[in-house]
Design brief:
single chain; three-stranded antiparallel beta sheet; 9 helices; Rad52_Rad59_Rad22_sf; DNA repair
Length: about 240
């Protein structure tokens, strides 16, 4: 019985491909996307053998302590089928999402439900190493650190993962790349701080900025265009406040 439970936990907590681990520079944390977690659950339980839903009767719109923005909070029910027990196991956890600039409450509710799903999944082992703090961000190398045994797992799976070498084994090429990365990062510090300041004034905190910024960059929106967009939203907000 115990070995089966451990086997299930190990499958759920198995390493993700290295590229799936992301770093939130604004929240200073490593994370895994909701899509990656969905794929892991499908892989372990099978499609149709797990499910989740927002309990809309529990949804609340609360004001942030700063008073500048609102946050959606909702309980999420997560269930999976236990083949050994031949029954469904259900967990409930809370999810939340700040109503960010340009986001309506419906979008925030969807994100809050995903957040609740990820929390429930973590309780049964998905990305447990991540939540334990075993996977960290190395500021010096500007790379995510994963445990050494992940290398063996990647080799066994036949994955070719571009895991950056440790500081002690960094070669000249990597050193040069790190130097260029640091140089570019230093160059962009003023722009990044400007984006942070605008977001902070709009939202009251930096919650969700990294994900929103990454999404805009994927849409090929430049940092200057992002600054202009935030300036416009801030002007609109001030106009509404003085109307």
């Amino acid at each position: 019985m115990t070995s089966n439970v451990l086997s299930l936990f190990q499958r759920l907590n198995a390493p993700f491909p290295y590229a799936e681990y992301q770093y939130d520079s604004f929240g200073d944390r490593c994370y895994i996307s909701g899509q990656a977690i969905t794929e892991r659950l499908n892989e372990v339980f099978g499609v149709g053998y797990w499910r989740y839903e927002g309990l809309y009767g529990t949804e609340k719109i609360v004001q942030e302590p700063s008073g500048k923005n609102t946050r959606v909070k909702i309980y999420v029910q997560f269930s999976f089928y236990n083949a050994e027990l031949k029954e469904w196991i259900t967990l409930i956890d809370a999810g939340s999402e700040q109503v960010k600039p340009g986001m309506n409450e419906g979008d925030a509710t969807k994100s809050a439900i995903t957040d609740g799903m990820k929390k429930c999944a973590s309780r049964i082992g998905v990305a447990s190493d991540l939540y334990k703090g075993i996977i960290t961000w190395d500021r010096q190398r500007q790379a995510i650190n994963v445990p050494d045994h992940y290398q063996h797992y990647y080799q066994d799976k036949g994955w070719i993962e571009p895991i950056p070498p440790s500081t002690s084994t960094t070669n000249n090429r990597t050193t040069k790349k790190t130097y260029l990365t640091d140089k570019l990062k230093s160059k962009g510090t003023t722009t990044q701080n400007q984006i942070k300041a605008l977001w902070q004034e709009l939202a009251g905190s930096l919650d969700g900025l990294d994900e929103w910024h990454a999404k805009k960059r994927q849409e090929r929106v430049s940092d200057q265009q992002i600054i202009n967009l935030l300036h416009k939203k801030l002007q609109d907000k001030r106009s509404c406040a003085t109307a």
